[in-house]
Amino acid sequence: MSEAALPAPESTEVSDVAKLPAQTEEESHQLIELVWRFFCSLRLTLANLLGLFLAMIAGTFVNPANDSLTNIEKAFGGAEHTHSLFGAQVNPILWSYRTFELYDLFHAWWFTLLLLSLALNLIACSIERLPRIWYLVRDPEKRLDRVQGIRHKGTGAFTRTIADVRDAFAKRGYSAEIVDGNFVFAERGRYARFGVWVVHISLLLILGGGVYGRLTAFEGTADVPQAGGEAEAMLVRKPDGSVFRKKLEGLDGTPFIVRCDDFRLKEFEPGRPKAFESDLRLFERRPDGSAGKLVARQTINVNQPLRYGGLTFYQASYRQLDDQQRARLAMTDKVTGAVRELIVGPGEGIDAAAGLRYVLTGYDPDFQGQGPALQVVRTELAAGQKFDDRGTLPPGSKVSTFWVFNKAPNFDKDNREDRFAFTFDKLTLMYATGLQIARDPSTPWIYLGCFLLFAGIGIAFYMSHRRLWARLVDGKLDVYGASHRNQESFENEFARVCDDLGIEPKKRPAPRDPDAAPTPKNDAPPSADAAAPTPAPGAA
């Protein structure tokens, strides 16, 4: 029998036999309801909080030194840590660190999912409760004969008018109004019901800020030598140990340069630092890489950072550049009065003007009994001549030598005929200031969330929505009251209200909150003879 090619199917649609039955509209709604109830459930909230709690504990022990993945791989990269799995040699420790990002646990993908899950849980719970609270605040039931399940009641004879009842409520701080002639409704603290909402919003801001910060924040370092050292970029280390160079740019993308004019180290004793600070200036960076317009200037220390262009410059560390001491000088221009602070080493030239250079050539700790002094060589070229790189002086150059004394700051200014005068402070080592440069745009949102959290907790726990209803019929006054929180405090206040009106308060237990009870929509007053587990407000 010869083989025959089967005809190609006319379409790629699945046959009726293989098709799954289509969901009915009711089943689709049930699925949506199940998903909605899942995100509204208290179990999900507890699971999220438990997961975050365990993650925080794990973050304390898994990588307490905040080591990079590179160092972790070096520590656990030996063959003794590998095991056979599915025919391959696998290092379970490194696999766990890489897969679950345990080297940077609080920025790991699964920790972010926990934050997102808790955020969705809060959003769902808030939306679930909002309509009832909103309508209760916006459109409260104002007639006494339409509410049920009220716990606090007062009744008695009343010879004054319904306006007097309203005024008595108002004196207690309630917003009161007369309804339908013989009813009074009063309330106070209606917005206290939104305290829980404020707490939810604050938590969402904190959670959202955490996720946003994970995606956008970064932190780098830069070592800038003192005495005019500059840096146009910083080194950013990723959690996996890799390092990349990132240019210093403002929020608008404009590049800039950071310059360290001076660094000062204070010590309790040699080798024991007490405090350190840096004088920083920031300049716009020109296309050729040179410094342009001055945009910021500040002296920073450990507790006083510099903020510019969305970046924060922290004084984080310092390092000594070499063992050679340098002289700290000040050069004053007698013509303009400008003072230039300098840190200069032996043999380094100071170009004061065109064709005029000063070079430090010696130091004496006690020059002829006058204390520490520096020897400076002054070289002045003839007009039109320039210094060359080999140090050869052209014919006609004027060379002179003078001393600058530490204990006589004005000696050089008063005794030497020159446009520029020097003062000598001390010998110092050369340092590079260590700057920590960070950007975290989520910080303001997290601070706002923390502020709202405290405000929401205060509203939720220390404020309550209190309502009073009153009805005056044939000289008999009925007053009812309800509070959604702090029942004991409200009971005392309700007793004072009844005392103001001259009626007797009575406490009536009720199993239901008036907000949860159904609201009958008839205008007929409740019967005095009615007998029910939860009597209507007008019952005797």
Give the low-confidence spans: 517-540
The general outline is elongated
**N-C termini distance:** 101 Å
The count of DSSP E runs of length 2 or more, i.e. the number of strands, is 23
What is the structural class?
A: alpha+beta
Average pLDDT, all residues:
84
- How much helicity do the residues have? 25-40%
Biggest beta-sheet profile: 7 strands, antiparallel
- Kindly estimate the percentage of residues that lie in beta strands according to DSSP: 25-35%
Number of alpha- plus pi-helical segments: 10
**In oligomeric terms, what are we looking at?**
single chain
Index terms:
elongated, alpha+beta, 6-stranded antiparallel sheet, 10 helices, disordered C terminus, single chain, 34% strand, 7-stranded antiparallel sheet, 540 residues
Compact summary:
The protein is α+β, with helices and mostly antiparallel strands and 540 residues long. The chain has helices at 25-40, 42-61, 69-76, 92-99, 109-138, 162-171, 195-216, 411-415, 443-462, 487-501; strands spanning 83-85, 88-90, 152-157, 175-179, 183-188, 218-225, 229-231, 233-237, 243-247, 256-269, 272-285, 291-300, 306-308, 311-333, 339-344, 349-353, 356-364, 373-380, 398-405, 420-439, 466-473, 476-483, 504-507.
